Amino acid sequence: MDITLSITNSSRFQVPEFILLGLPGIHEWQHWLSLPLALLYILALCANILILITIQHEPSLHQPMYWFLGVLAIVDIGLATTIIPKILAILWFDAKAISLPECFAQIYAIHSFMGMESGIFLCMAIDRYVAISYPLRYPSILTEAFVIKVTLSMVLRNGLLTLPVPVLAAQRHYCSRNEIDHCLCSNLGVTSLACDDITINRFYQLALVWVMVGGDMGLVFASYALIIRSVLRLNSAKATSKALSTCSSHLILILFFYTAVIVVSVTQLAGRKVPLIPALFNVLHSIMPPAFNPMVYALRTQELRVGFQRVLGLGDNVSRK
């Protein structure tokens, strides 16, 4: 009788908070990672804010390509800010505790921003496809109203499709373990602590990745296949070079993002043997793109470089080539 009562009370008990232990296997010296992470976070904030200011300040950048880049900058700031400040608090102040609502909110924000980034890359690929394949119709198709509508549709899509992830996680019962061997709240990392069945959580996570990110990735690469076909039909070598140049920065970012998604997914399979690998890749995937996306555009886009110089007061008399 006493044993039965003890089991019942244990099953009804709900842990009040989770404990984020940090990066698995390197807890003793993980604080040394705080400096590069802090520098990357500052770089991500400054570079993306500079992009937003430059696009707003320069009339020549009021084009769909740069509007999407501005949305991407906002998403990158949101993604980095969702994750890095908490990680730095863990590494600097040993602030490992996180309440259940805060943890579920972080899960939702991470999934939403990741999905939004994937969706914006799809929008950028479509923008380049229309610009190269239908240059005369481009201004009438990619209007400001179109950009606003497609951006809002992406926000709505990601907001609704990712909502069940934290909702399902919150419905699980956490009655005993509350230590997460990670420095952020990942969906599967949190739900693995649950005392009840998490099959539906795993199924929805897998379905979400395949439908949303997998669907975006397929459409992105289909768009670039059509772009390459259109470029190869151009008679002028100069026109071909210009067309490829306008796509190069987008293609670099897209390849980097989806390659990172695939690497993170694959390393999850090796997580049981070497848990540090997926955890570290998860963190880097959240801060590396926000930090380096602006650099890729700055190096590959002449108009953006000139805009940076003007905003920073380094080239008031700079003329566009």
TrEMBL record:
Instruction: Tell me one GO biological process term.
Output: cellular response to lipid
Q: Which residues form the G-protein coupled receptors family 1 profile domain?
A: 47-297
Cited Gene3D superfamilies: Rhodopsin 7-helix transmembrane proteins
Q: Which domain of life does the UniProt lineage start with?
A: Eukaryota
**GO CC terms:** plasma membrane
Q: How does it sit in the membrane?
A: Multi-pass membrane protein
UniProt keyword Plastid present? no
Q: List where the protein spans the membrane.
A: 32-55, 67-93, 105-126, 207-228, 249-270
Keywords from UniProt, A to Z, are: G-protein coupled receptor, Membrane, Olfaction, Receptor, Sensory transduction, Transducer, Transmembrane, Transmembrane helix
Name its cellular compartments.
Answer: Membrane
- GO MF assignments: G protein-coupled receptor activity; olfactory receptor activity
Q: Which residues are the signal sequence here? A: none
Q: What does this protein do?
A: Putative odorant or sperm cell receptor.
Q: What's the name of the protein? A: Olfactory receptor 688-like
> Taxonomically, what lineage is the organism?
Eukaryota, Metazoa, Chordata, Craniata, Vertebrata
Q: Which gene encodes it?
A: LOC112667931
